[in-house]
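Blackboard transcription, Thursday session:
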Amino acid sequence: QIQLQQSGTELVKPASSVKISCKASGYAFTSNYIHWIRQQPGNGLEWIGWIYPGNGNTKYNQKFDGKATLTADKSSSTAYMQLSSLTSEDSAVYFCAGSYGYGGWFAYWGQGTLVTVSS
Amino acid sequence: DTVLTQSPALAVSPGERVTISCRASESVSTLMHWYQQKPGQQPKLLIYKASNLASGVPARFSGSGSGTDFTFTIDPVEADDIATYYCQQSWNSPRTFGGGTKVELK
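(Written on the board underneath:)
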């Protein structure tokens, strides 16, 4: 079955960067979009952007331009999101999710990665 | 950005019918989707393209609407349905979510 397995909890210092991963299995990694979504404590969901692993194309929510960088490694079927210049506002759970097409819905989700920014 | 406004928290009893509304600030055609999120878990897709039931989702969940007004229904509600429900649109960029509707037991 389709699965997205995310990397574990991160505790990072302000002004640093963090890179979290999302390993896909059970489908053709290069054929579907991988999206990243943020959920701040007690808050709702925000879409960060997507990457299409087949050609590496990306699209970002303007709010996260310069904050998030999405990449994908076809050889390991793994998508990555790097977050830079971290502040306490970046403390959140980050989910990866897959869609079957550009206009698609988030059909399957990773379990989430908690990032805590603290000195 | 397209703002999605959901009805506030609801308190229900098992066996009742619950309806959640989602209003978009501009048309999203039928590209409105619904998710269920339980505490400490990832969201789960329930309805896609306004009215289509996702694979494996019980038929007591349903959705309707187009343009700017959408409705999500659980009939009948079961105790396991206690969760927060989010609408999400993928017609306009950036994709946006509603603020969530928390369904609680009376």
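Lecturer's comment: The two ends of chain A are 40 Å apart (CA to CA).
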